[in-house]
Amino acid sequence: MSLSAKRILLVIGGGVAAYKSLDLIRRLRERGASVRCVMTAAAQQFVTPLSAGTLSADHVFTDLFDRNDEHDVGHIRLSREADLIVVAPATADLMAKLATGQANDLASAVLLATDKPVLMAPAMNPRMWSHAATRRNRETLARDGIRFVGPARGEMAESGEAGEGRMAEPLEIVAAVEGLLGRRTGPLAGRRIVVTSGPTHEPIDPVRYIANRSSGKQGHAIAAALAELGAEVVLVSGPVTIADPAGVETVHVETARQMQAAVEAALPADAAVMVAAVADWRVASEAGEKIKKGAGGAPALQMVENPDILAGVGHHRKRPFLVVGFAAETQDLLANARQKLKRKGADIIVANDVSPQGGVMGGDRNEVRIVTAGGVEEWPLMDKDAVAARLAELIARRLASTLT
Ligand code: C5P
Hints:
Bound molecules: cytidine-5'-monophosphate
Number of domains: 2
CATH architecture of the largest domain: 3-Layer(aba) Sandwich
CATH topology of the largest domain: Rossmann fold
Largest sheet: 8 strands, mixed
Helix content: 25-40%
Radius of gyration: 24 Å
CATH class of the largest domain: Alpha Beta
């Protein structure tokens, strides 16, 4: 993928992960982007403006008021002369400043003054990342349209502590930048594909819900593999604990009805790959208060059927050219898959046996059969990533046949 002629303003915050931002500069420039850096005062404690300036081959901007500096272009111009602002590392402090609209240094002033897309790569101690204040700020920023990549789980450089808070690797940040700006290349370039993944959670009362064992690993791997082949991917994900794939637009939902609305909003698309383990039923009316244990004995839950998202897409007036569904079964795999193909209006059903002894649900491997109107193809037991790559190739071949 190419970032040629794209202008990136890289805001480097004060964290030990700042050393990775130097590599990020190189990686972005290798792909043809020009990179200009803004460094906070704290960032300069970790890496020097000289390093950032040498690698970016541009002046490094550090001060909000620097009228004596011949290079001073002001925060508005810095923003105007960029296509995307990347904040890496995005410290808890920078996130808090932008979430509350503060602008008392050059980095925060640029972020508040910009109308360009902003991508943040948070990096901080896991306790800071999990603090309610940071969680709140992240939500606020996401609502304001800020995009995020990472953080990942791992060991912290400074304390050796493990947990979530490590900055995404430079290449993951590059992939996210490409997702936002890049001219995609590959057999699926120019194709838009919607993918669902993960379970849904159907609330019973404010503290309880119905869920299933889906981890989202297979669906997320498929979204990543399609993006890898150049597709523009919208991933609609139920609640999962794995990270958003790089280079993919991820929409987070909880319930089947929210998932359906997000899929609907993502159409039209060239293909839809519905991998989510959508709850078939939900509780007819969610209790407003926590249901109490009491003399009445166990509550009887009245269930109603959820919308079938795959069937909805398969019979949609904006039906994608290619509709792919999954059939997770514990018995009569092929017969059920064939039936699903028809009933749901799908072109391909990826059938897999999810009997507990197979370890597919939540596991890393999967053994699938590809069921189409033309027959059944058996694939060997493979990593979910390998299943994803092979399925992405198959989708690319099927879509290629629509090229004029
Ligand atoms: O009917 P069943 O749940 O076995 O069908 C599985 C396929 O249908 C999967 O592709 C799943 O993502 C999709 N599905 C859906 N909405 C539902 C139920 C299943 O999209 N409510």
